[in-house]
Design goal:
about 0% strand, globular
Length: about 110
């Protein structure tokens, strides 16, 4: 639990590699807690604001916009965080493919 709380802040939302590492680290630690019999019902409400404060503001806004108020829990937030991360990675991959000349299509980045 201490490791989750002490994860450093991701300052730039453009650094999707660092966002991915942070997400994967959070996911691994949460699974480890579940393996010990601790579900997110035990710690989710406490951990959620701490984790969200480690995510760049614009990513928090997008995630917050997608999760309905009645579903506001750790699992729902992490699910939307993962989707947002996949969208960012897909956008970066497409942009890199286009700029390298391997593909003539324009990047299909989701915009908000």
């Amino acid at each position: 639990m201490d490791t989750l709380v002490n994860l450093p802040l991701v300052a730039s939302s453009k650094d999707s590699k660092l966002l991915r590492r942070r997400y994967d680290s959070r996911e691994a630690h949460i699974r480890a807690l579940e393996a010990l019999g601790r579900t997110s019902l035990h710690y989710g409400e406490l951990l959620l604001p701490l984790l969200l404060n480690k995510v760049p503001k614009n990513a928090r806004l997008i995630i917050s916009d997608k999760v309905p108020r009645d579903s506001w829990d750790l699992k729902s937030i992490l699910k939307e965080f993962k989707e947002e991360l996949k969208n960012r990675e897909r956008c970066e991959y497409t942009a890199a493919t286009v700029s390298s000349g391997r593909d003539e299509r324009k990047p299909e980045c989701p915009t908000k």
